[in-house]
Design brief:
The chain is of the alpha+beta class. The protein has 18 helices and 15 strands. It has two domains: 237 residues, Thrombin, subunit H, CATH 2.40.10; 217 residues, Tetratricopeptide repeat domain (Serine Threonine Protein Phosphatase 5, Tetratricopeptide repeat, Alpha Horseshoe), CATH 1.25.40. The strands form three sheets. Strands 10-11-12-15-14-13 form a six-stranded antiparallel β-barrel. It has a six-stranded antiparallel β-barrel with strand order 2-3-4-7-6-5. Strands 8-9 form a two-stranded antiparallel ribbon. Helix 11 packs antiparallel against helix 12. The N terminus is likely disordered.
């Protein structure tokens, strides 16, 4: 099927079990109830379902949605798309209480789910007792934090076509709206399992919990426009459990104003990333191992998180693990530069694992992706040099000497805006290519060819030229001259 649009309404599937002992049940042969006591269910579930009001940086309301609580400390599930452009948000309970959304604990954009953290309220439940009397009775003198009501999660093991469900949402901002329907089919869409439901999913209901007859959350409501027809779906509750499991690695919520930014920038703002930078500086990757693993658990769909874990594994000499993380980073990369960088590190990890043919193939893929970047030719030249394939290395170094960096660095231009040279990084790369080419010629005993690199190198980097001269003198004394 061709998805022309996506308007997901998060429906959390809750397993309330014995909480709803007042439900009238008519059990089928497989034990699944086919009737719902809507009055009893609404009374129990509504306190845990919230209206979300999302605002931009100017404080202007931009969207409303629905969310539901899944823990007593204020964890709340809704759709990713509800808050993706948010600068702030508040959650309104059915009885009118307002709670500030502290931020994001975990996110899965592909499944359109996000786990938020609400700021709890404190209330002094002993207002009618004087301080002295309070102390005499041994009662707390400070306000206590009140627990949130929440919906337990069920499962979809026994859910099938015909299973009755109820949905509590906030269509058009009308919180606590109850509707019922059935599961009409189980579908596989975009390689994901979803429940097709008949209960209406209207604008503002995104994030609503979908409940079965026992009050258990079995999914998160999702309305999709498919081939011009609006079809109501529910994301299975198992995806909710998965994102909650990932949140256990989170120590603090990411503010919504940061959440709307690029995921890579978001990762760079975390304490775990700062520990990673410290590890790079100290060359002690042990201190970054656990923090970076937490980052990957927190951002499982972000290629940059897998990339830095791959760097840590490389630094710890766990090369097979590094390969796996770099491969995941390649798969999740959302732009060409990230893809090229991840493939470069993947090639290095494959080589260190002794998988040289695969490493050579990855180098070839990078050149095919961007044949005008000198660093890519330089990387493969270095690979060939380490493999002792010096003629192939020289050919790649020669190509690298003619190209720029291929990055977004500043380059010299004329009055027409035309590029007239390469930038600082491109100049360094060309110098490195001349240096490495000279060394390869010397290793082959082609000393005359090796010395031809010196004047080119001197024009680019005088200090590097001095180093090459010293190296070539040493080679001349120890390496026989190649026969012509």
């Amino acid at each position: 099927m061709k998805a022309l649009g996506l308007l997901l309404a998060t429906v959390a599937l809750l397993s309330v079990g014995q909480l709803f002992s007042g439900c009238t049940k008519k059990e089928t042969s497989d034990g699944v109830s086919d009737a719902i006591d809507l009055k009893a269910l609404a009374k129990k579930a509504r306190p845990a379902v919230m209206l979300l009001v999302v605002s931009d940086a100017a404080g202007k309301e931009i969207v409303t949605g629905t969310g539901f609580l899944v823990s007593s400390d204020g964890k709340l599930i809704t759709n990713h798309h509800v808050v993706k452009n948010a600068a702030s948000a508040v959650a309104k309970a059915e009885e009118g209480s307002l709670f500030t959304v502290e931020g994001v604990l975990a996110d899965n954009p592909k499944k359109d789910l996000v786990l938020l953290k609400l700021k709890p309220k404190k209330r002094d439940i002993f207002d009618d007792v004087a301080d002295a009397e309070r102390k005499k009775r041994g009662l707390p003198s400070e306000p206590v934090t009140l627990d949130f009501p929440f919906l337990p999660l069920g499962n979809t093991d026994k859910v099938e076509a015909g299973t009755r469900i109820a949905l509590i949402g906030s269509p058009l901002g009308l919180e606590g709206t109850l509707s019922e329907g059935i599961v009409s089919a189980m579908r596989d869409l975009s390689s994901s399992r979803v429940l097709q439901i008949t209960a209406p999913v209207s604008p503002g209901s995104s994030g609503s919990p979908v409940l079965d007859s026992k009050g258990a959350v079995i999914g998160v409501a999702a309305a999709m426009l498919i081939e011009g027809q609006l079809v109501n779906f529910a994301i299975p509750v198992e995806s909710v459990k998965e994102i909650m499991q990932n949140s256990r690695a989170s120590r603090e919520a990411i503010p919504l104003w940061k959440f709307g930014k690029n995921s890579d920038d978001l990762i760079r703002s975390t304490p775990e990333f700062r520990t990673y930078v410290e590890a790079l500086d100290k060359k002690d990757f042990r201190i970054a191992f656990e923090p970076v693993k937490r980052l990957v658990a927190r951002f499982p769909e972000v290629g940059f998180a897998h990339f830095i874990l791959g760097v840590v594994y490389n630094g710890l000499e766990f090369y097979p693990e590094a390969v796996a993380e770099f491969q995941e980073s390649v798969k999740l990369s959302n732009d060409r530069q990230s893809d090229l960088g991840a493939r470069g590190s993947l090639a290095e990890a494959l080589e260190r694992s002794g998988r040289n043919k695969e490493a050579e193939q990855v180098h070839a893929e990078r050149i095919k992706m961007d044949s005008n970047a000198s660093n890519i030719w330089l990387d493969r030249g270095d690979f060939y040099a380490r493999q002792g394939k010096l003629d192939q290395a020289i050919a790649d170094y020669q190509k690298a000497t003619t190209l720029g960096s291929g990055s977004h660095e500043l380059v010299p231009v004329n009055e027409k805006g035309e590029q007239t040279g390469v930038g600082i990084f491109g100049t360094w790369l060309q110098a490195k290519a001349w240096y490495n080419m000279g060394i390869c010629y010397a290793r082959l005993g082609k000393h005359e060819e090796a010395w031809k690199s010196v004047p080119h190198l001197n024009n680019l980097n005088a200090e590097m030229a001095k180093e090459l001269i010293s190296a070539l003198k040493a080679f001349s004394a120890t390496t026989p001259k190649a026969e012509k």
